[in-house]
Amino acid sequence: MSIENVAGGKQAVLVLGCPQVPVQTSISLYLAASLRKKGIVPIIAGNRAARLNAEVSDPDRRYTGAYIDLDRFIEDLADGKSRFDYYFIFIHNDAGISYAATVQSLTGAMVVGLIYGEHFQEMADAIEFPCEKIAAHAVHNPMPLKKKIDEVLPWVVSNL
Question: What is the extent of the structural domain holding 67?
Answer without folding.
Answer: 11-157
